[in-house]
Structure formats: C-alpha cells, structure tokens
Amino acid sequence: MTSDITTDTSPAFDPENPAATIEAMAHRCSNWGRWGEDDVHGTLNFLDDGARVRAAQLVTTGQTFSLAQPFNAEGPQKGWRRRTNPVHTMTDTGLDAEYGDQGFPFGFGGADDVIAMPLQCSTQWDGLGHIFDHGRAWNGRRAGGVVTSEGDQVTGIETAADRIVGRAVLLDAGRALAGELGLEYSELPDGFALTPDLLDRIIDQQGVSSQVGRGDILLVRTGQYSRARREGWGDYAGGAAPGLSFRSAPWLHDREIAAIATDTWGFEVRPTELNGAFQPLHQIVIPHMGLYIGEMWNLDDLAEYCARTGRYEAFLVAAPLPVTGAVGSPVNPIAVV
Amino acid sequence: MTSDITTDTSPAFDPENPAATIEAMAHRCSNWGRWGEDDVHGTLNFLDDGARVRAAQLVTTGQTFSLAQPFNAEGPQKGWRRRTNPVHTMTDTGLDAEYGDQGFPFGFGGADDVIAMPLQCSTQWDGLGHIFDHGRAWNGRRAGGVVTSEGDQVTGIETAADRIVGRAVLLDAGRALAGELGLEYSELPDGFALTPDLLDRIIDQQGVSSQVGRGDILLVRTGQYSRARREGWGDYAGGAAPGLSFRSAPWLHDREIAAIATDTWGFEVRPTELNGAFQPLHQIVIPHMGLYIGEMWNLDDLAEYCARTGRYEAFLVAAPLPVTGAVGSPVNPIAVV
Amino acid sequence: MTSDITTDTSPAFDPENPAATIEAMAHRCSNWGRWGEDDVHGTLNFLDDGARVRAAQLVTTGQTFSLAQPFNAEGPQKGWRRRTNPVHTMTDTGLDAEYGDQGFPFGFGGADDVIAMPLQCSTQWDGLGHIFDHGRAWNGRRAGGVVTSEGDQVTGIETAADRIVGRAVLLDAGRALAGELGLEYSELPDGFALTPDLLDRIIDQQGVSSQVGRGDILLVRTGQYSRARREGWGDYAGGAAPGLSFRSAPWLHDREIAAIATDTWGFEVRPTELNGAFQPLHQIVIPHMGLYIGEMWNLDDLAEYCARTGRYEAFLVAAPLPVTGAVGSPVNPIAVV
Amino acid sequence: MTSDITTDTSPAFDPENPAATIEAMAHRCSNWGRWGEDDVHGTLNFLDDGARVRAAQLVTTGQTFSLAQPFNAEGPQKGWRRRTNPVHTMTDTGLDAEYGDQGFPFGFGGADDVIAMPLQCSTQWDGLGHIFDHGRAWNGRRAGGVVTSEGDQVTGIETAADRIVGRAVLLDAGRALAGELGLEYSELPDGFALTPDLLDRIIDQQGVSSQVGRGDILLVRTGQYSRARREGWGDYAGGAAPGLSFRSAPWLHDREIAAIATDTWGFEVRPTELNGAFQPLHQIVIPHMGLYIGEMWNLDDLAEYCARTGRYEAFLVAAPLPVTGAVGSPVNPIAVV
C-alpha cells in the first residue's frame, strides 16, 4: 500500500566500493537547501501543527508509555569514545536528614543529587550536528563552523526543543518477521538488515494503522533491547546489531518522515553492509537528509500494546533536554494512545 | 466558581510559631495512607487515563510550547549546596572532524558531548524523595529508609516516568494582578505571597478555562523569570521571590491537583511567611501531601498565548528523565494547544 | 634482621570463621587512642620531621620516578560501585584557537579542560574514612559521625596534605620470589598471599637498604600491574590479585610503618583467605590501625632501578590532592634517589 | 647581586600598541628550537638531576609545607569559561554503612567519592598546551596539531609527571614591599606590576638565599590570596590582581628558571599593562618561552617560615596529576625545608 512511493531510483550499491556508494546515496537523498540556506530543523520541517492536531486525535484510551531505558550505572556503555554510563550521586540523603547536620530549621530535611553523563549514553536523540560527511554538516555547512568546543552553534539540540511532537508509527520488525525467520523470540538476529522491501512487508502485515508518511516519527523495534534485557548487555553499545539497511535511505527519504528511532545503539545494521565503513547510513541521513535519529529506545511495552490491539500508531512527545549547543540529548519519549 | 471547595478549615497560622504552624498544616493536608501503604506516586494518583483523554482533546491548533529554560553555563546557579550550572563539554567537534584525526573511514566525522549537572539546576521536577519533615518522607516512611547514597530506592523519579501527562492550567498571576498592584510589568514583586483568595481571584478573572480540579497540573506564572531575563539572574537561585503562600497548602490539597509548577526557583514565596523557617510549604506538600513540584519553568510564551486567546489550559507532557533513584529531574515540559 | 620484632602473638586464624578472626585481629592490631582521642592522622604520626631529614639524605643522584599510572579513559575501571575511568574533556582546544572564535585579542588563544572521576579510579591514597568495621571508623569513632554526604568531616584527606613525605622502602616481591616460584616474569600469580615470613625473606634477600621500620612508607610490588600492561587489564579492578596476606596485619602493625602502597587495585590478596569476607585486611588496617593505603601505584620503573643498584630505599613525596572531606585521593607519588 | 644578568635588551614597550609589543617580546624571549624540534618540556629542561641533588640538601629541619589551596565548593570560581569549583560527592558514606544496606559481609563498611572539576579550578600547573600565540603552541607547533578534543597530544601534562622536583625560591613581594608602599598588610594592591627592578630589589632585600638561577622554581607571593582569605574571594578568579609585569618576561627568560608560581589566579598583573590585551605575559612565556606557570598557590605558611628564618629557599616537589593529554593539572605542591 505504500508502493506508490517509488524507491527504484536507488543508486548503485557496491559493498566493495563504499566511498562511491556513500557519495551516490548522499546525492540521491540530499535535502540540502530544501528549506532554505538557514534551515536548522531538517526533516522536522515535515512535522507541522496540522499533523500534530491529527496525532492528538489518536489519543483514545489515555494510556501512556515511556519509551526510555533506565538511566543508571547498569547501562550498556563500556567507555568507547569516553562514553560511560550515567554517574548519579547524592549530595544529601535521607540518612543525612535523619542524622541532623543539614542545617535546616524546624525539622526540614532534604535530598539532592547530581549527574555526570554522556548525552548519548542511553535513550537519546542524535542532533543534526552529531555526524558529518567529508567535513560537511547538515545543509552543506562546514563542520567546523557548526560544532566547536563551545558546542553546536547552529543546529544545537535546543532548536528542536518544542518540535518533536506528532504521530508515531511503530514497525515491530522483530515480531512481524519472527515467523518467516523461524525466530524463538520476536527479536531479529544481530547483523540483520531491514531493507525497503522488508519495511514495506512489515507495514502490509501490520495493517493500515502502520502507514508511514510525511511528518511521521517512525519507531522500529528490532528486538535487540529485549534480548539484552534477557541475556545481558554484551556488546549492545557499539557491537553487532540488527538495524536499518544502508539501502533503506531512499525509502526513509521519500516517505518524508520527521524522525526515526530504534531500540538499538546505532539504528543501522552492524556490521555494516559496506566493507570497512563505520556508520554509512548515519553519514547519509544526518548531514545530507537532516533526519533526527533516536537510539536506545525501549519500544517493548508499546509493542505489546500494538500487537494486542492491532493499532500501531500513537501520539508521541519526545522533547529533548534543551542543552544549549548539544549534539544529542537524553530523552524520555512518551507515547499516548 | 471554585468556591464550592472550602478552605476555611485551615489550621491556625502563627508566623512567630513556625514549628506548631507547620505541624498543624501537615496534619491538615496529609495524604499519608490515602493510596495505600506502598504508594509511590502521591498526587499523581489523581491523574488518570480518562483525564488524559480529555486533556488530549484540548489540542486544537497543534501549536507547541517548550516550557524549559535553556540548560547551559549561563544559568542562575551560584554553587549553593554544590549546585552549579550545567557543564556541557564536547568530546569531539566539527573542527576535529575537519582536522581529520577521528579515525573514521570514508569521510565520516562526528561530534559528541557529555554533561555534568545537578538534577535540579534548571527546569525540573522535585521528586517525592526530595524533601523530608522531621525525618519522614512521603507516605510516612523513614527518610533514611528511602534515600541513601544509592539514591531514592522507593520513590525515585523513574516511578513518574510515564505519568505526568494531562491537562495543564495556567494561572498567570503576574498578568492578572498587574493592574490592581500597579505593576509596570506583569511580574509580581519578590516576597509577594499568593494566598488562596488571590488564586481564586485569578481564576475568576481568567475565566472558565482556568478552573482547577482533580488531576490537573497547575502552572503558576509569577513573572520573576521574565524579570530575570530582562535584568539578570541576581538571586533568582535561592533569593527572594514571589510564590505560593504557606496558607495555600489547603487550597492545593483540596483541589486534588496532580502537580504544580512555577517560574521561580522554589515555588513558594521567599522570604517565607514563617519566621526563621526555610521552605515550609515544601515541607508540607512533598512529604505530607505527596505533591510533585516543578520549578524554574519558562511559562512566558505559553502565557502570551493564553492572554491572547483567553484559553488557559493545554495538553501537557512533562516527562522526567528516568534517572534511577533520582530525587529530581531536569525536564523539557511540552504544552500543546 | 627484622626478627627482633616478634609477630608470633598473632591471633587465631580461622578461614572458616571470618567474623571471629577479624575481631581478634582488630583487637591485636588496634591503635585506637594511641595518639589521643582527637587524632586524625593514624600511622602518619610515626612519620616525623627527623625521619624526613634522614629520608632527604637518600637523594644522591637526583633521579626521579613518578609512581603514578596514567589517568585516562583507558584505565581499569568497569563501573563497579559507579567507579568509571576518568572522563577528561576539553572546553577549548588548539583547533578552536585556530578557528578564531575564542574572543581573545591580539592572537591570544587557549585550551582548557575539565575532568570527572572517582577519587579512587587510578593511583590513589585511601583516606582513613574510606573503610569502617561494624560501624566504627578510625580511632573508634561512629562511622556516620565521620563521613556524611558532606564528606569526611573528621579525617578528610586534606588532613594528610603535607604529611606523606619520608623514606620509602620497596619490597619487590615479584622479583624476589620469582626464582623460587619458577615464574616466567617477575610477577606473582593472582591469589598469592604475602605472609609475614615472605616479607621477612624478601627483606633479607634484598639486603640492608630494605629494612623496614618506624615511619617508613612501604611499597610492595607484586608485578600484577606489569602483567596488566602486557596482557590487558582483565579484572585488575576488583578481581583476583596477589597481595598482602590477612596474616600480615601484625607485621604491618608492629613495624610502625606510616603507610603502605602496592601495584594492585586492592593491596590485599584476592580472593581473600577468609571465606566469604570482602577485604578483611582493609577492615583491620584502616579503621583499627589507622594505616594509609596506596593502591594502583606504578612501581615498575623504580623497581628496575632498585634491582640494578641494589638500593631499595628512596625519598618519597606522595601528597594527596587536598579535596576537602575526601575519603581518598588521586596522587602522583614521586620517588627521588 | 643578580645584576650580572642584563635585561636592558628588552624590546620596545608601547601600551598603546599591544600587537607590536607582544610580537617584539615574543621574539626577545623565544626558546623555540633551543632543545630541539621535538622538545616537549620547555624550561623544565633547565632542571636537571644535579640541581635536584643540591635542592634535596636544603632539607635541614624536615618541616613540610603544602602550598595548595583547599579543593572544595567554596573556591573562587564563578563559572567563567565553564570553570566551576570542584563538585565532590559521595557514593557511599558512614551513614550508609551504619544503615547497613551496602551489601558487605562481616561488618565491613565503606565510603567512596567522585569529583567533577576543571583542571585549573584551584592550585594548578598550566601545561605548555594551555596558551597559544597566533595559532602557535610551544616550540612553534601548530596549535590545532597539538591540542584537539582528544587533549594535548604532544605536550600533555603527563610529560611533566616526574620533572617538577627541585629548588624553590620564594620572593615574598607583598612582605618585602609593604614598608615602602605603606601597606597595612603584607599584600600588594590589585593592579600592582612586579617589574624586573622590583624583583631584583626583593632579592637584594631578602638576602643571599633568594638568588634566582638556572633550573629554579620561582615562587612569588603577592599577598592577594591572604587578602581573599580575610575579605572573601571577590573577583579573585579573573579580576584585578597584583602580579608579574609584562616587562618581566626578559628577566624570567634570562635567569633560565624552570617554572614560576604565584598566589594569584593568573600570575601576571591585571588589568594588563597593554591596552586591550588579555594575558599578554602568558602569551609570551607559555608558547614562546616554554615556561611552566603555577597559579592559585598558597604561599602564606611558607612565607611565614621564610620571614622568620631568613631562608627563602626549599626543596619542592610539585608533581602534576598525570591526566593524559591535559593542558593543566591540579597539584598539591610540597615544600620541604
């Protein structure tokens, strides 16, 4: 049913020639200049107030789902690129209040806390300044002119503070493909690539509420997080994973989605399909397409609800913490149905 | 119109006898045991799915408002109780990507960042483990049994991860009272106490969309943040401020609101009305009432909208970052109208 | 030659009865009250100015050795008890200076940096408030009266700011015992316990410069750090390790050393010799003996020098960073010979 | 008596032409290439083992002085360039140990802590990568090739880990000049510039132990820290201060000192003597001369000792924490006399 959008204009795909393949795909999927030279919002431009009104009408039961993983020291990070798990510490506790040295009058006592964490250590948004291609950031800007040690001075995550509110569509790839793949759990194996054909097939299988179009926030559940919860993190942070195929870039581009989020560390399949590349799909969709990517989301509870009801859409509010100049942000996304 | 709720059972109020006044008010406003011995949600219990469905129906234009202040080094904190402003630093930048030593292939480049901050340094929720009275936390629990150096092990902010979604009502006290107080700006002076009578008067003046009832999230704009933006922070973090009167506790209690948030550092009036007390209203509403308090919210843009349209209600999603065991959380609250 | 100090008064040692064994040893090795009720220095009292003058006279070549491991993200920590490796980030760089947006006049440019780290993530001193036994801290004080969320308010590491300056003696256990143990490298295997007899034997073997007495700072090289450098960290932070035997407590006590440091994470042998205990030697020497413990020191270069020259003593300055109220401190110990 | 070193070849000094004055001084004082193209140590090359042996012989009483200020939240930082005071927090306390939820057996209890801080928030060394002139770092290297977001990859502070050990000479400028300036306290006023003539006069006045020569570590006490301790920090961190005159650069250069440290935030006089410049003396001595600068040292106790004994020299060990790639480091300098 989504077949009216053609993806057969995909550029040549040569796993042995990553440089040329990436360049061709960047050209194919570029949105540079689409919203003017000064644009800082990228694909969030597809999401307008009218879409938000329609999305709010999806609320029929009032049930809410937090799509965040817990933020704590037990997270998946292992120190790569200085990414630790959150270090949350107390500056005052109930024990101190009982002990009575807090200096407050009339029985008043308090607890207080601080945190130190990478902005992308757990459930997060990638900002548009997070990834560059050949020294170019979103909309063709010079990378060094966008993100300095002062942070992202053009497309900092604060530019999205009030924007990521709209219709979410869940593609539960793990569940939809479990049968044909003969999976024990509704979880795709590591290294499994979600190609355009598979995305279309999942939509067909899930039914009409799964149609993906302009301004939608696409949620893709691979099941890897479910597996990590059952079996331990392993290499969840940076290792092999199921995810979007590099070939899905035109599909994502042509549907004019506002954002995409998955339950994996890096959204795209790993190992990558292009020999020797790092995250080639990131390299396309962030700097060239201007797409917001959510990573390490917890889609399990929402997926259960969707499977039970057959409704795969929700009203989503996923507001990043407006840290000035940040290239990413922790987020507690809320889906309301 | 809200006069059907009686507040004349308020206990004796003696500024010269804070201890007795606090104790009587705690007794008057206690919700201990109301939702069972094991309750961890406090007044969020008033906010149910039905209320959320009705709240979603308030979305008619799709316009969104971020109610967060910027999170950056220019914030109001001065180091009290080790509360600094956020320290946001980059671990990789666009300049590094251009320089070419990031070690990625095929032109891939990235920026990444970390943050260190108190959880209550800017726009925030106070969790139920944040304040104690005489060694007692929410629902009568022993403070030291709730919050240790491991964090809040009972009422940590993660318990509210999916709950703070509902109808918000804005009481724009600064604007509503500007005329009778002869204010140059729609900003209450520091030390101005919002008593029950004044709250009722504001509701009457703003009209029917301002009615406050069970499960609502009450937003009170004093105007102090507008003043800080114009004149500089001064003692915004911890100094004198307009805010809720200690006497408003029964009013807040009887209306069965789910939460309250203001545009000031500490929600209640400072200096306090009780001689020598610190934050006596906190001492009532958090441990005894179980009320969620939002502080340092930016209500200015929403207030402009409300003043222009005469509609003072919105659909609000204000999901805390689910830091396990945190006694507070930064938040980017989103109002949708 | 150190046989004039008797250790045969060691209490009963029963691996199957850790509680009683720990209690007896605590009694045997206690220094509570030895330097008065108000003492905060513990065994550092053994180190006086006269000893420092004699120690300075050991400087004959002017050669210096830094006994610190590198402080960086590649360290051994894995997150246990929220202990990460140091997260060092730049707030300004040379690339930014070149880019020219730093705002300084006349060609001035700068780089600046911040760090977030556990105080005991790398080469360190344990302060006297780091370990308790049955709720008692050094000198018999109530643990909760010493260390609150405000830090160690009695024996904070700042009390040792100017004190850890004196004679160091290196016992290179890995090298001394390599022959009789048939080791390929001069590195003791994990789980190897250094008992009093072995310590005496090492001293005899190394010769007269190794004699250990009052006020000395004892350095014990097991070789585990050398192994970690060759083979990777593995479980260096918290796993099995060679180290001081629980039975060495009286030996350490009776020699009246000022401090001890090793090249391992935890100074004492692991797994512990007492069934089910955690770090029983810590439990004796910190709260009962008042002994300063250095951990994760890099003794390799100094050991090479000592082996080459046959001199196993040096002038040592190992000044903790005086973080007010800290229960430990990173340190860059300097040995001068 | 130090008059045998001529400084009359100082370049033209024109406060109204900072650019030319800085350039001429850079040329006058450059050490680029002096120790080879690959040098990373700068003036620390002047400090050799022979000097260290002589310095150790200065130890005659064994008395030690910690020259560090306290590291805590009460420090002078106000947030400029994201420089906060240290945030030291506990991850476990004695209260927790007493409470009994730490999970350790047999009465074992522990306290642990973490810190987040700028590396230059309190007593510190500036590394050679801290300051650039016209995009050039020490020894003429490209600034961006030295310090990236990965840190200083050439002259990181770890290169000085075992080097800053030698003879310190204290010039107590505040005390020496108090008489002729008619000062109430032995503290120079803010804005007071220590020119070469004054430095020579102080040395003459203090006597022979104050002679400054090759490899010495020069300590200059202005008295500003004493004033801050008495009157409060005020603008200690970044405001007006007494300090070294820009004109002292040739004096510092020609004496071939290894390092210099003062009791002020920025070592050089502020406001600067060059109209509109920021820290022009830094701009000369770090990138061109390769000089290590210590700032915010506490020289008061040592100064008392020196005044009392008439001896102004000591054995100094001031080992930076070897944070890999850091452009500065906190330090607890120890003087032994």
TrEMBL record, chains A, B, C, D:
<dbReference type="GO" id="GO:0016787">
    <property type="term" value="F:hydrolase activity"/>
</dbReference>
<dbReference type="InterPro" id="IPR007325">
    <property type="entry name" value="KFase/CYL"/>
</dbReference>
<keyword id="KW-0378">Hydrolase</keyword>
<dbReference type="InterPro" id="IPR037175">
    <property type="entry name" value="KFase_sf"/>
</dbReference>
<protein>
    <submittedName>
        <fullName>Cyclase family protein</fullName>
        <ecNumber>3.5.-.-</ecNumber>
    </submittedName>
</protein>
<dbReference type="Pfam" id="PF04199">
    <property type="entry name" value="Cyclase"/>
</dbReference>
